[in-house]
């Protein structure tokens, strides 16, 4: 809360972003593409972390919000010939609206009930995607290749198929959302969310309408998750129902817990580690999920608050 | 049969909160541990109960080294603890809370009889979840639950907190009664006058150090001591 | 006197938990600038009664009026904005946050007017209020400690600091001296007296010395009803009070 404490945190975040910017010049092609994907998925986890890490609400339905961003953007490009920037905006606005509506209903519950209700809504969303397969392409989804125009910026054209464009658009999305989350959680409203996580009854008796604050958290969380979904579609030219399935609600939960729920850079750490873990393990063995599972169990037992949570407890007390 | 604490040092993380604290308590004796907030009174009780591990020193009962036991084994030796803030099972009824106490050492329900004599108000509350009781009533349940174990030693952390004046008086009578039955009582209290009335021995602590140990008469006669360690002016 | 409308008034206020009548039809009035003590046996319904005033518990029947306005249906968080502030008897703080952050949450509530102010406000303005409140209760040196690591008595002072930062009009203190050492009680009594210059105080307390020192009027509750009300002198002399409460 004290002004001086903010500086090392901001510096650390900027250093991470500069490192990611530089990394693209040294990474071999495979890891280059992988890092771009990680940054988009980490953005999704950043959105998830606002709700789980800072507000103490565990949702199992975030794939619906990631999916909303993805489908709104994809459909706008596919049917309405939207450009990339317009489609991104559509994706974000759609997921914000969707979060607000879902929040008005689900935030009447807490704890396990919240988890179940969000999961139910996500299932409804997922099954609707399959049901309306004439529009959504159902199980198969649809690809945007041929529909998506290159990005026009200052007289230059950037095609999303170009790896460098992919990387830098992913980085830009990630950077904006990371800094947004840093600012948000350190804002007065962000402190109220942490207070709700700690002791909601007391927060209410301090004069806060906790329902409104939780709704704000869900909308910010959903907006960021939707932005990630939208960016994913633009970069990889694909929209598919898998991304709205329960698996994609569980992933951000694991990434966030592993990296450190309630730390701003935990999502990046968790997403990177797990993506590479899956990748490396699947090179060794076909039963790679056992390796991944065991590693996760050991890590969580050693560091119950996640990697960055452990770092904060031991060394960097100022970590936001 | 003495409970003896011998030169214990305790720390939370880097910060030591107890330095070389020693005291001993015999059956049928009331020892009052007095000091300001943060002086280390509660930590001393927690160390005896095995809830905080001392870095150095020993705590013995009849030659049994308590510091080597797990926290759940210590109540079975006949040491009961009334924690500050009560530590009740809020969703269990009063009766269930008391039964948890009875289970520890297999005491019979006849124990309940004289506990209700002590706190008649609890009899009407037996089927109510402990969390719905008022603060003072919860305090009674916490004390009653500790007594349910038929303890030889009773550690009480501010047991009069939240009790109305009448019940404070009754609790002091209870302490005197238990003492006559041979129970050794280690009492942490902020109500100094009340504490000095029942004490056989007083230990004053300040920032984790024992500063004075002796009979209560000397403390009451020494305004310097009271002012310096307790901030009480006479 | 009759022309002055009371700051706070309850009419027929009642609360039943299942079959248990915790508070039975209480008519009560509190004038601006008073320090009023509520005493009574454990389980008399004192906390339940003030919880209905703060809005933490909603009544089974009856009304609560504040400054002439019926606030019976106003949610607790909006009553805080009106100036009715409650400090918990069973300590309820944010254990994982620092002392400073705990009080800052209270201070920033006073500065929050809309969404924009909730997202960005002057940190200095918050810090100033926090400082004042912490100095008042004497916890300034502990501001960077985790609230959960404070000694019990200091956690209670933190509760008071949080209430102060909310700038209450009516401050409800529920057994504030519990767990405080004698010198801290002396300090708190002085603090309550200085708070009372700007706020009306409703004090639930068992420490009779504190009650007699602070209040000009005392309300006595027993079994959910008000059984007596009067000056400290009248109350001490009341045989019912002696019987059910003081144990003389």
Description:
With about 325 residues, chain A is mainly alpha-helical. Chain A has helices at about 5-25, 30-55, 60-80, 85-105, 110-130, 135, 165-185, 190-200, 200-205, 210-235, 245-260, 265-285, 290-300, 305-315, and strands spanning about 140-145, 150-155, 155-160, 240. Chain A has 14 helices and 4 strands. The longest helix of chain A has 27 residues, at about 30-55. The termini of chain A are close together. The mean pLDDT of chain A is about 90. Chain B has helices at about 40-50, 95-105, 110-120, 135-145, 165-180, 190-200, 215-220, 225-230, and strands at about 5-10, 15-25, 30-35, 55-60, 65, 80, 155, 185-190, 200-205, 210-215. Chain B has 8 helices and 10 strands. Helix content of chain C is about 40%, strand content about 25%. In chain C, the strands form 2 sheets. In chain C, strands 6-7-8-3-9-10 form a 6-stranded mixed beta sheet, with helices on both faces. In chain C, strands 2-1-4-5 form a 4-stranded antiparallel beta sheet, covered by helices on one side. The model of chain C has no long low-confidence stretch (mean pLDDT about 90). The chains are: A mainly alpha (about 325), B alpha/beta (about 230), C alpha/beta (about 250). Chains in contact: A-C, B-C. At the B-C interface, α4 and α5 of B face α6, α7 and α10 of C.
Please specify the SSE layout and strand pairing.
The complex is a heterotrimer of chains A (320), B (234) and C (248).
Chain A: H1 6-23, H2 29-55, H3 62-80, H4 84-106, H5 111-131, H6 133-136, E1 142-143, E2 151-153, E3 156-158, H7 163-186, H8 188-198, H9 200-205, H10 210-236, E4 238-239, H11 247-259, H12 266-284, H13 288-302, H14 306-314
Antiparallel strand pairs in A: 1-4, 2-3
Helix pairs in contact in A: 1-7, 2-7, 2-10, 2-11, 2-12, 3-4, 3-5, 3-10, 3-11, 4-10, 7-8, 7-10, 8-10, 11-12, 11-14, 12-13
Chain B: E1 3-12, E2 15-25, E3 30-34, H1 41-48, E4 56-61, E5 64-65, E6 79-82, H2 94-105, H3 110-118, H4 135-147, E7 153-157, H5 165-180, E8 184-188, H6 192-198, E9 201-206, E10 209-214, H7 216-221, H8 223-230
Parallel strand pairs in B: 3-8, 3-9, 6-7, 7-8
Antiparallel strand pairs in B: 1-2, 1-4, 4-5, 9-10
Helix pairs in contact in B: 2-4, 5-6
Chain C: E1 8-17, E2 20-30, E3 35-39, H1 46-54, E4 61-66, E5 69-70, H2 76-82, E6 84-87, H3 99-111, H4 115-119, H5 123-137, H6 152-165, E7 170-174, H7 182-195, E8 200-204, H8 208-214, E9 217-222, E10 225-230, H9 232-237, H10 239-246
Parallel strand pairs in C: 3-8, 3-9, 6-7, 7-8
Antiparallel strand pairs in C: 1-2, 1-4, 4-5, 9-10
């Amino acid at each position: 809360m004290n002004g001086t404490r903010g500086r090392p945190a901001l510096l650390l975040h900027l250093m991470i972003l500069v490192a990611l910017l530089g990394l693209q010049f040294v990474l071999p092609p495979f890891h280059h593409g992988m890092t771009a994907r990680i940054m988009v998925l980490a953005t999704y986890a950043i959105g998830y972390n606002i709700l789980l890490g800072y507000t103490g609400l565990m949702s199992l339905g975030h794939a619906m919000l990631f999916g909303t961003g993805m489908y709104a953007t994809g459909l706008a490009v596919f049917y309405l010939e939207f450009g990339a920037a317009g489609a991104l905006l559509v994706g974000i606005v759609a997921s914000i609206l969707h979060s607000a509506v879902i929040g008005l209903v689900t935030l009447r519950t807490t704890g396990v009930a919240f988890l179940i209700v969000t999961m139910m809504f996500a299932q409804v969303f997922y099954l609707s995607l399959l049901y309306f397969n004439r529009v959504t392409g159902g199980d198969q989804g649809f690809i945007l290749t041929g529909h998506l125009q290159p990005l026009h910026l200052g007289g230059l054209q950037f095609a999303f198929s170009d790896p460098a464009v992919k990387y830098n658009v992913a980085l830009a999305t990630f950077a904006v959302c990371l800094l947004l989350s840093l600012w948000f959680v350190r804002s007065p409203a962000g402190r109220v969310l942490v207070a709700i996580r700690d002791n909601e009854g007391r927060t209410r008796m301090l004069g806060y309408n906790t329902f409104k604050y939780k709704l704000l958290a869900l909308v910010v969380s959903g907006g960021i998750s939707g932005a990630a979904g939208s960016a994913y579609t633009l970069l990889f030219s694909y929209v598919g129902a898998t991304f709205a399935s329960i698996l994609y609600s569980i992933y951000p939960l694991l990434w966030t817990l592993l990296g450190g729920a309630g730390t701003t850079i935990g999502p990046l750490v968790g997403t990177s580690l797990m993506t590479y873990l899956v990748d490396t393990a699947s090179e060794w063995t076909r039963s790679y999920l056992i390796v991944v599972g065991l590693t996760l169990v050991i890590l969580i037992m050693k560091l119950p608050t996640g990697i960055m949570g452990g770092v904060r407890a031991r060394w960097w007390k100022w970590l936001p | 049969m003495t409970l003896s604490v011998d030169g214990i040092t305790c720390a939370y993380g880097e910060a030591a909160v107890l330095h070389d604290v020693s005291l001993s308590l015999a059956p049928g004796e009331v020892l009052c541990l007095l000091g300001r907030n943060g002086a280390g009174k509660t930590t001393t009780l927690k160390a005896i109960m095995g809830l905080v591990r001392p870095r150095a020193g020993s705590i013995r009962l009849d030659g049994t080294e308590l510091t080597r036991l797990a926290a759940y084994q210590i109540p079975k030796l006949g040491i009961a603890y009334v924690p500050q803030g009560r530590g009740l099972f809020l969703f269990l009824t009063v009766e269930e809370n008391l039964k948890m106490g009875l289970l520890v050492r297999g005491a019979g329900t006849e124990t309940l009889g004289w506990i209700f004599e002590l706190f008649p108000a609890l009899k009407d509350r037996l089927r109510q979840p402990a969390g719905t009781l008022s603060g003072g009533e919860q305090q009674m349940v916490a004390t009653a639950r500790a007594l349910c174990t038929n303890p030889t030693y009773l550690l009480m952390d501010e047991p009069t907190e939240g009790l109305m004046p009448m019940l404070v008086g009754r609790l002091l009578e209870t302490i005197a009664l238990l003492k006559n039955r041979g129970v050794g009582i280690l009492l942490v209290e902020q109500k100094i006058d009340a504490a000095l009335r029942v004490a056989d021995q007083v230990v004053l602590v300040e920032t984790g150090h024992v500063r004075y140990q002796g009979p209560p008469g000397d403390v009451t006669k020494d305004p310097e001591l009271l002012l310096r360690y307790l901030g009480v002016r006479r | 006197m009759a022309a002055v409308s009371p700051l706070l008034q309850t009419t027929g206020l009642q609360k039943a938990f299942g079959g248990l009548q915790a508070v039975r039809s209480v008519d009560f009035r509190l004038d601006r600038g008073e320090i009023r003590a509520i005493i009574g046996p454990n389980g008399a319904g004192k906390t339940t009664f003030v919880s209905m005033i703060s809005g933490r518990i909603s009544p089974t029947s009856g009304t609560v009026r504040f400054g002439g306005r019926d606030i019976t249906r106003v949610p607790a968080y909006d009553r805080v904005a009106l100036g009715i502030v409650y400090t918990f008897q069973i300590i309820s703080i944010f254990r994982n946050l620092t002392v400073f952050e705990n009080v800052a949450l209270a201070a920033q509530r006073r500065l929050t007017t809309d969404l924009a102010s909730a997202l960005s406000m002057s940190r200095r303005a918050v810090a100033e209020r926090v400082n004042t409140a912490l100095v008042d209760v004497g916890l300034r040196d502990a501001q960077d400690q985790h609230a959960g690591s404070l000694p019990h008595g200091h956690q209670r002072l933190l509760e008071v600091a949080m209430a102060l930062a909310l700038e209450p009009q009516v401050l409800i203190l529920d057994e504030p001296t519990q767990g405080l050492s004698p010198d801290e009680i002396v300090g708190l009594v002085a603090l309550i007296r200085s708070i009372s210059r700007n706020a009306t105080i409703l004090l639930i307390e068992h420490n009779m010395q504190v009650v007699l020192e602070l209040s000009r009027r005392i309300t006595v509750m027993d079994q959910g009803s008000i059984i007596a009300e009067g000056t400290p002198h009248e109350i001490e002399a009341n045989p019912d009070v002696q019987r059910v409460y003081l144990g003389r």
